């Protein structure tokens, strides 16, 4: 596998050049197990089994894939992949990742030359309950187009309001939508309302009822003298095996050291680490030692950009001192989707222009994010795993980015999602990588 310098970028390509071939010629293989129309018969796991079985036969045997993404630069941190590789998909699963997989063995081939191919991105902090009274956005419209195949709602709902959210939003979303359950019973609208919103037993019961959807508890601090929300979130997380995401919203840093070193546990997450209210820098712009102590004891730090959680004047000095967030998330909501543009690929672009490498930002939106929410099966291009894939373009030029205070950073690179695959299906394709030229397309198949 070819190893490249951590800062090397993909070859410069004009993604809007109509002369560049976006698609390889389709060729179909004839194999046993194909139904009418040359589709493999049976369940997704049976189809994946057939592919793996064919691969174990003699060198002359053929494999058949539903989708083959060729010629892309694969970055898959969990599996140590960083180079030009092909990714093959059968039904909803990744069948194979390797060099020079034959196009003739695929029903559908996408040429990803000049692009980066990564695991589907994971956004562990966003507000995605459009049915509620708060600031939530439509989940599919604000995730898949940015390469996000797994998103975590960051506490829009509590134990009183989670079930309608699950029925109306989670169960209907194309993106894999998980949730931090707000320790406030009514969710985000009940934060800071006091003891009347807190019921640790009810929160525990809701997490235990929906362990596949709920990854942990969310607690917001708005009063340094009142630790009840954090303490009860920690209690609920200990009883259910989840994590706590804490959001500091105090104008003073009083009590912050206690939060990091005494209240939260190893594996818990402090979000909006580069936000205005997080006392990440002292008056001399130096990182307080207790942040490093908290990191050594296992606390995780998340970006959580949003409308108030990311300031260049805080992030830049912290990064210069080597304090990189463990995970990169958007904090996306109604207040931040337009200004300051807190979409996940945009947040990743801001950090690229502040000095992180492409590998570092991919790592923090895939394998690190998966570990943070204790879903290790996500954020990887592992063979046999669900086929969640992002194809990213790294564009060069002159680009402007805004932080939460509306200050501007001018940068030279920008990440853009060119294609998203969710569970084996192409769900976002603005560059037409999965489309044929209209002059060669024949009858349109999407109209009946």
Report on this model:
- This protein has 448 residues and is an alpha/beta fold.
- It has a domain at 121-410: Alpha-Beta Barrel (TIM Barrel), CATH 3.20.20.
- It has helices at 44-55, 162-168, 200-209, 228-240, 256-263, 289-296, 312-320, 344-353, 358-364, 367-372; strands at 34-35, 39-40, 67-76, 81-90, 93-98, 109-111, 116-119, 121-126, 148-154, 176-182, 214-221, 243-248, 269-270, 300-301, 389-402, 408-422, 425-428.
- Strands 3, 4, 5, 6, 7, 15, 16 and 17 form an eight-stranded mixed beta sheet that branches.
- Strand 4 and strand 5 (93-98) form a beta hairpin.
- Helix 3 (200-209) packs parallel to helix 4.
- The longest helix is centred in the middle third of the chain and has 13 residues, at 228-240.
- Mean pLDDT is 88; it is low at 1-41 and 56-60.
Q: Which labels suit this protein?
A:
alpha/beta; TIM Barrel; seven-stranded parallel beta sheet; 10 helices; globular; disordered N terminus
Summarize the structure.
With 448 residues, the protein is α/β, with parallel strands linked by helices. It has a domain at 121-410: Alpha-Beta Barrel (TIM Barrel).
Q: What is the topology?
A:
Blueprint: E1 34-35, E2 39-40, H1 44-55, E3 67-76, E4 81-90, E5 93-98, E6 109-111, E7 116-119, E8 121-126, E9 148-154, H2 162-168, E10 176-182, H3 200-209, E11 214-221, H4 228-240, E12 243-248, H5 256-263, E13 269-270, H6 289-296, E14 300-301, H7 312-320, H8 344-353, H9 358-364, H10 367-372, E15 389-402, E16 408-422, E17 425-428
């Amino acid at each position: 596998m070819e190893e490249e310098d951590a800062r090397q970028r993909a070859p410069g390509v004009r993604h809007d050049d109509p002369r560049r071939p976006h698609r390889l010629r389709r060729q179909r293989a004839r194999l046993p197990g194909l139904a009418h129309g040359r589709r493999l018969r049976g369940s997704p796991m049976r189809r994946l089994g057939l592919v793996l079985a064919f691969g174990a036969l003699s060198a002359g045997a053929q494999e058949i894939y539903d989708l083959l993404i060729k010629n892309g630069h694969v970055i898959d941190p969990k599996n140590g992949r960083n180079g030009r590789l092909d990714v093959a998909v059968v039904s909803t699963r990744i069948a194979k990742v390797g060099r020079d997989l034959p196009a003739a063995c695929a029903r559908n081939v996408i040429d990803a030359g000049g692009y980066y191919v990564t695991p589907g991105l994971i956004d562990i902090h966003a507000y995605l309950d459009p049915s509620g009274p708060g600031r939530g956005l439509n989940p599919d419209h604000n995730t898949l187009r940015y390469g996000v195949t797994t998103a975590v709602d960051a506490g829009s709902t509590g134990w009183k309001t989670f079930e309608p959210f699950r029925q109306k939003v989670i169960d209907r979303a194309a993106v894999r939508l998980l949730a931090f359950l707000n320790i406030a019973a009514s969710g985000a609208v009940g934060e800071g309302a006091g003891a009347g919103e807190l019921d640790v037993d009810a929160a525990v019961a809701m997490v235990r009822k929906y362990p596949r959807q709920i990854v942990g508890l969310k607690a917001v601090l708005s009063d340094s003298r009142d630790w009840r929300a954090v303490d009860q979130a920690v209690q609920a997380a200990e009883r259910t095996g989840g994590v706590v995401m804490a959001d500091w919203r105090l104008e003073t840093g009083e009590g912050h050291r206690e939060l990091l070193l005494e209240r939260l546990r190893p594996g818990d997450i402090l979000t909006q680490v580069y936000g205005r209210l997080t006392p990440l820098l002292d008056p001399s712009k130096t990182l307080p030692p207790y942040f490093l102590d908290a990191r050594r004891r296992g606390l995780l730090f998340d970006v959580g950009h949003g409308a108030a959680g990311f300031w260049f004047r805080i992030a830049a000095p912290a990064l210069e001192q080597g304090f990189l967030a463990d995970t990169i998330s958007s904090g996306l909501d109604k207040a931040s989707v337009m200004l300051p543009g807190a979409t996940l690929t945009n947040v990743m672009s801001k950090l690229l222009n502040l000095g992180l490498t492409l590998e570092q930002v991919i790592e923090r939106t895939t394998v690190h994010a998966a570990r943070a929410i204790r879903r290790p099966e996500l954020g990887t291009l592992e063979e046999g795993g669900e086929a969640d894939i992002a194809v990213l373009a790294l564009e060069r030029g002159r680009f402007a980015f805004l932080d939460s205070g509306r200050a501007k950073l001018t940068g030279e690179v920008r990440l853009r999602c060119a294609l998203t695959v969710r569970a084996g299906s192409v769900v976002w394709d603005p560059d037409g990588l999965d489309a044929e030229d209209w002059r060669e397309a024949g009858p349109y198949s999407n109209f009946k």
